[in-house]
Write a structure and sequence with these properties.
By secondary structure, this protein is α/β, with parallel strands linked by helices. The protein folds into 2 domains: 221 residues, Rossmann fold, CATH 3.40.50; 129 residues, Aspartate Aminotransferase, domain 1. 33% of the residues lie in helices and 16% in strands. The strands form 3 sheets. The protein has a 7-stranded mixed sheet with strand order 3-4-2-1-5-6-9, sandwiched between helices. A 4-stranded antiparallel sheet has the order 10-11-13-12, covered by helices on one side. α4 crosses α5. It is globular and about 65 Å long. 46% of the residues are buried.
Length: 390
Amino acid sequence: MYLGIDVLEENRFSVLKGKRVGILTHPAGVNRRGISTIDVLCRSRYVTVVALYGPEHGIYGNEKANQPIDNRIDKKTNLPVYSLYGRYRKPQPEMLANIDTLVIDLQDIGVRSYTYVSCMLYAMEACFENNIEVVILDRPNPLGGKKIDGPLLDREWKSYVGAFPVPYLHGLTIGELAILAKSMPNWMNIESKTRKQGRLKVIPMRGWKRSMLWPETGLKWIATSPYIPSFSSVLGYAMTGLGAQEGGFSHGIGTPYPFRLLTHKNLSSDALIKRLQALDISGLDYKIIRTRNTKGDPVSGVYVGINNWRRLKPTELSFYMMLMVIDLERPNPFQTTTRSDLFNKHVGSTQWWSELIQNKGKPRIQYFMKRWKQEQESYKKKIENYLIYN
C-alpha cells in the first residue's frame, strides 16, 4: 500500500524539482511509515519548501473546531504558516506569492461536510487564479470507494461544510474530488477559462482498491481532528453526525466512543435501545454501554454497532434520529431552531427540511430514501469516467 507521498518519494520528487513548494497538510498527512509529509519534503535534497498552509485544526491538529487560527512562523521548520481557517479560508495572492507549486496532502473521512475537502477546493481555486500549480498527494477514502449514501447537496446550500454537489457519503478519494472539481462546470467558483487552464497533478496511490475500508489498507489511523481519533469514529460520523444537530440527542462526544454512543435527554438507555431496535435498520445492532466522559462523570448510552456493512445505508440512522426528535420533543425543534441554515448546509436537502418543519404526520422517510437512491445512481454514472481506481 503506497500513498501519494510514497509514490512521489519513490519517483525522487521529480514533479517538484526546481520549484518553490508550499505544503497544505495536517498531522494525518504522513507516508506509509508514519513520517509527516512536511518532514519528508523538507528533508529531501530535491525539494525546496518555502511555506506551509494549515486547514481547520492547524498543521499540528491541536486547534479547536470552529476556532479561527492566525498566521505564524513554525518553530520546527522556521517556515511561514498561512492559516486557511482564520481571516481567510481561500489563500490570498500574497500568501501564494513565493511559491510555484502547492502540494496538498490532507486525509479526508469520506463525508461531504468534513472541511478538509473544502479547504482543498478553495486552495485550488486560488492557485488556478494565480497561475500556481497544484499537486494532490492522494490518500484512501477510509469508507472505501463503493459506499455512496445520503442526499446530494442542493446548490443553494453550498458552503464550507458542503463545497461539492455530491451525496453525503461521496465514495471518492480527495484526488478524485480534485479531478472532478477541475473537470465539471460550476464545481469551482472561478471563471470557466481559469478552471480549464488550471494546472493540476494528482499523484495516485498504489495498492488501494475501491472495496477497501481503512483497516484493509494496513495503515495506522492518525486522528484527523480531535473528535475523529479512530476509524470507529469515522464510521460513527457517517451514521450519527447529521442526526444530533438539532434536538436532545448526543452522540458520544467527550466519551471514549465519539459518534457511536447515543443518548437522548428524554429517554433512558433502555427506552432508547428499544426505539432504535424497532426501526429495524439493516446492518446495525445496538448495546448499552456505561462509561465516563472526559470530566469523569458517568454516562450510559446506546452503542451503535455494525453487523453488515454491505447492506448498511450509513446516513439512514441520522434521518430516523431526526424523526425521533420530533416525536420526543415539544415544540418541534426544527420549527424553532435559529440554526436552520447550518443544518441545511450539512444535510443539503431543501425538500427534507420542508418535511421536518411541516411535520404532517411522519415525514415520508422511505420516499426520500428511494429518491436519494435514484440521485445516487445518476451521480455514479456522472463520475465513472473520472475515477482513478477501478
